[in-house]
Amino acid sequence: MNKFILTAIKPAIYQHIHLPLINDKGLEVIVKRLDLLHTEVQGNKFYKLHYNLEVAKKSGLSKVLTFGGAYSNHIHATALAASANGLKAIGIIRGEMVTPLNPTLEDARNQGMELYPMSREEYRQKDSSFQLKRLKERFGDFYLIPEGGTNAMAIKGTKEILEGKDLTMDFVTCPIGTGGTFAGLLARAESDQQLIGFSSLKGNFIVSEVDQLLRKYGIQPKCSYEIQTAYHFGGYAKQKPNLISFIQEIKTKANLPLEPVYTGKMVFGLFDLIEKDYFPRGSKILVLHTGGLQGIRGFEQRLGIKL
Ligand SMILES: *Cc1c(COP(=O)(O)O)cnc(C)c1O
């Protein structure tokens, strides 16, 4: 992947985690810090946007339009990546937009993104041809990036997350939202690897959703894989006190910053599986830190805590 969409992109950093539990179980746990690729366009969102913006630019469109919630990492990343590429960006935000803007939306606006609220009823139909037509009437021609950014170009990008020695690790773990990132990893991982996705949403529907993505994009995984659905903590963007204290503990003891929507739930789930002897002794586990740390400010504001 050439790094044309952002010039300040850094090579991936790997962090070995040394904690008594990991050592006791004879495991090697290495975190690939995709959150450190760039201060603003963190983690998997960089990979998901890369080819989308390339196509938008090549097709001569001057604008991208996308959707997201008020604390969305995708909105945040799109705003910055679009502005870095001289593209205008429109963000359609679910529900009301409260002023003053929260830190996520404030950053997006400071990057030049135009923000428009959309009622929850309308938002549910945002992908209908009717809504799309209305948006085109209102904003003119644009390159559409779906909510969460998952499409063919996103998967082409996330396929490039695993490289080099990543492909020699026994297990690879990743958080799941829409499943786009996981699908890209499945397209790349080797036959002797096992991928574990941790869903941040409540319910088992994500398993068939990932199946659908694989069919739609013609992906036939060589590796084995599993989706863990027990670590949602009440549902998307919900959390519980034990998740918050876990995140605080990991930050202090392992110097690893996590956030409560995705990476915190994944690492909590990983440690639970380690405790339950899910992994054979000697296993090498690669943990993908998919970013999202910009969202911490909003959590701290709303919950009055420090993460
Ligand atoms: C968006 C996001 C995910 C989920 O990615 P999907 O491709 O939608 O599954 C995971 N982690 C972080 C930090 C994210 O921002």
UniProtKB/TrEMBL annotation:
<protein>
    <submittedName>
        <fullName>Putative D-cysteine desulfhydrase (DcyD)</fullName>
    </submittedName>
</protein>
<feature type="active site" description="Nucleophile">
    <location>
        <position position="72"/>
    </location>
</feature>
<keyword id="KW-0663">Pyridoxal phosphate</keyword>
<dbReference type="GO" id="GO:0019148">
    <property type="term" value="F:D-cysteine desulfhydrase activity"/>
</dbReference>
<dbReference type="InterPro" id="IPR027278">
    <property type="entry name" value="ACCD_DCysDesulf"/>
</dbReference>
<dbReference type="InterPro" id="IPR036052">
    <property type="entry name" value="TrpB-like_PALP_sf"/>
</dbReference>
<comment type="similarity">
    <text>Belongs to the ACC deaminase/D-cysteine desulfhydrase family.</text>
</comment>
<feature type="modified residue" description="N6-(pyridoxal phosphate)lysine">
    <location>
        <position position="45"/>
    </location>
</feature>
<dbReference type="InterPro" id="IPR001926">
    <property type="entry name" value="TrpB-like_PALP"/>
</dbReference>
<dbReference type="Pfam" id="PF00291">
    <property type="entry name" value="PALP"/>
</dbReference>
<feature type="domain" description="Tryptophan synthase beta chain-like PALP">
    <location>
        <begin position="24"/>
        <end position="291"/>
    </location>
</feature>
